[in-house]
Amino acid sequence: MSTKIVEKVAKEQYFVLPGDRNWQQFKAIEDLMSEVPGLRISYLDGCIEFMTISEQHELIKKAIAILLEAYFLYLKIEFIPVGSATRASEVKSASFEPDESYYLHEKKEHLDLALEVVISSGSSKKLEKYKRFNISEVWFWENNQLSLYRLRDDNYETISRSELLPELDIDLLARCVLIPSRLEAMTQFMAGITQ
């Protein structure tokens, strides 16, 4: 008799703590939850959000990062990847972790580019958090496509091409993210950017 092992892949879960919490309450809750693996906690103006990260979320995030970093390397664009390093400030009343983030050319006061993968929760409403940290461009992956936003005059505008990377074909990038094989995705992406 053979035994089948079925691995259950967890789906993302999203929960907003009702009520209005101050920064000290948020930090206390964050400390209490620090031992919970795979849990992200964010804060904006008294609202605390909890989210678990799914395997699908991580697959998409890494696919975008791998292709984007290959692009930087191929075109010799200096970059500093800082991943999901927490951005937090009591004065700004915000704390969150982008999925991926980068300084381009050199490290400076504000990030140049942040990526947000939306599988089950969130949306461009998260832009308020990014705005508080003056991040130049934010790219959202949602419904199998990329939406790009550029900070201008203290608000984000939708843009069709990256102003940081104006030669990058965003549609090519999105198509290659969806290819299941990372090798095939990289082959097609590199063929597209070297034409």
Main attributes?
195 residues; alpha+beta; tt1808, chain A; six-stranded mixed β-sheet; five-stranded antiparallel β-sheet; 11 strands; disordered N terminus
Task: Note down, in words, how this protein is organized.
This protein has 195 residues and is an alpha+beta fold. 24% of the residues are buried. Residues 1-8 have low confidence and may be disordered. Helices cover 29% and strands 28% of the residues. A hairpin with an 8-residue loop joins β7 and β8 (113-117). The protein has a six-stranded mixed sheet with strand order 4-7-8-9-10-11. A five-stranded antiparallel sheet has the order 1-3-2-6-5. The protein has a single domain, classed as Alpha-Beta Complex (tt1808, chain A), CATH 3.90.1570.
Number of domains: 1
Q: The CATH topology is what? A: tt1808, chain A
Sheet with most strands: 6 strands, mixed
Cα Rg: 18 Å
Overall structural class, as computed from helix and strand content, comes to alpha+beta
Helix and strand string, N-terminal first? EHEEHEEEEEHEEEHH
**Which architecture does the CATH hierarchy give at level 2?**
Alpha-Beta Complex
Q: Order the strands across the largest sheet as they lie in space.
A: 4-7-8-9-10-11
**Annotation field: number of helices:** 5
User: What's the overall geometry?
Assistant: globular
- Please state the average pLDDT score: 91
Low-confidence stretches: 1-8
CATH top level is Alpha Beta
Multimeric state: single chain
Please estimate the helix content.
25-40%
Number of strands: 11
Spatial separation of the terminal alpha carbons:
56 Å
- Sheet-strand content, in percent, reads 25-35%
